[in-house]
Amino acid sequence: MTETTLSVPDIHCNHCKMSLEGALGKVAGVKQATVDVPSATIAVTFDTPATVDDLVAAVEGQGYQVTKG
Ligand SMILES: [Cu+2]
Fold first, then answer.
1. What is the pLDDT of residues 17-63, one digit of tens each?
2. Is residue 16 part of a domain?
3. 66: in domain
C-alpha cells in the first residue's frame, strides 16, 4: 500500500472535491482518495495495479493540472 499527496492548485470548492474523488475512486487499485479543499491537495492511498501516473491521468482527465505528485 502506498500513500501519496498530489498538489492540484485549481481545486477551489466542493464540486472539485466530488469530481476528483469520484474519478480517482474509479482507478483500479485506489483504496482511498481524499481532497482537502483549503490546501488544494489530494491524499491518495493505493496499491497495484495503480501507479502515480494513473492518479495524475485521472486528475488531468477532469481538467485539472497536477503540480506535484
Ligand atoms: Cu470547484
1. 999 999 999 999 999 999 999 999 999 999 999 999 999 999 999 99
2. yes
3. no
